[in-house]
Amino acid sequence: MTETPLLKVRNVNKRYGEGCPKCAAPDMLGEENRCAYCGSVWACRNVIFDLYEGEILGIVGESGSGKSTLVKSLYFDDSITSGTASISSYKEGTADIFSVSPQQKRYIRNYLMGMVYQNPWLGLKMSFSSGGNIAEKLIASGTYHVGTIRERASALLEHVEIPVARMDELPKNFSGGMQQRVQISKALANNPPILLLDEVTTGLDLSVQAKVLDLIRSIQRELRVAMIVVSHDLGVIRMLADRTMVMKSGKVVEQGLTDQILEDPQHEYTQLLVHSLL
Ligand SMILES: Nc1ncnc2c1ncn2[C@@H]1O[C@H](COP(=O)(O)OP(=O)(O)O)[C@@H](O)[C@H]1O
Ligand SMILES: [Mg+2]
Ligand SMILES: [Zn+2]
């Protein structure tokens, strides 16, 4: 770990819905993040964290706690209501990535980030071959030479243990575990310093899940890419994350070293999560 964070996220707030005088600010709602008057939801409330080079940061919390909203915002799939974030390797960390132009956001997405979604249909074009999906990401990040693309796509598929012979097949004909592998290889195609993974093993059979988790760990060791791993499953977090952030109703209620959080959870909600795991 270096001193300067790779990614700095500050005071991120996201409201779904128009809001009303009763929920104009995120802290006007209490434990609940849904406004009882207008039904708007503050999905993220004052989220602050750092991600360091080469580490895996886990984000855990029950369904609806705001985890996906947070990573989707970082990947610009969703806009935030307020807050800032900076990446040390982008404009020397001086720019707020949420307020740059759409072209600059595209650049950040294509060159500095990778995203793996829970639902492979969001991360892959099912009408493109696996190789074609990887090619798309390579082209977006400035690789145009057909030979190079094909070579890199084979290497990436090999890396995630998809037989290269299946490069021209459509991922929609693959099993769930294989689809996640293709998504991971696509997300890594541009060698991003930051990889976002949202519930990538949720819904997979346990044995398949274990293999995908192993793959993620080995990739992280080998490539030293910094990862944000989102899961409602503390088992996944325990296996992957160096540090963990616990979210509840849009707020970060606890963060620290994963081992410490698992051994000695401070927040009542984390204690519940941990005890239901054991
Ligand atoms: N597009 C949307 N429109 C309205 N509300 C949404 C939308 N997406 C998520 N929410 C709400 O925001 C909250 C956080 O959701 P989400 O980020 O998906 O949580 P998690 O990933 O932790 O399960 C939930 O209350 C959810 O219902
Ligand atoms: Mg989610
Ligand atoms: Zn309201």
TrEMBL record:
InterPro entries: AAA+_ATPase, ABC_transporter-like_ATP-bd, ABC_transporter-like_CS, P-loop_NTPase, PhnK
Keyword Lyase (UniProt): yes
Entry keyword set: ATP-binding, Lyase, Nucleotide-binding
Domain ABC transporter: 7-274
Keyword Lyase among UniProt keywords: yes
PROSITE patterns: ABC_TRANSPORTER_1, ABC_TRANSPORTER_2
Bilayer-spanning residue ranges: none
Domain of life: Bacteria
Pfam families, per the entry: ABC_tran
Molecular function as annotated in GO: ATP binding; ATP hydrolysis activity; lyase activity
Annotated GO biological process: organic phosphonate catabolic process
Protein's UniProt name: Phosphonate C-P lyase system protein PhnK
Organism whose genome encodes this protein: Bacillus gobiensis
Gene designation: phnK
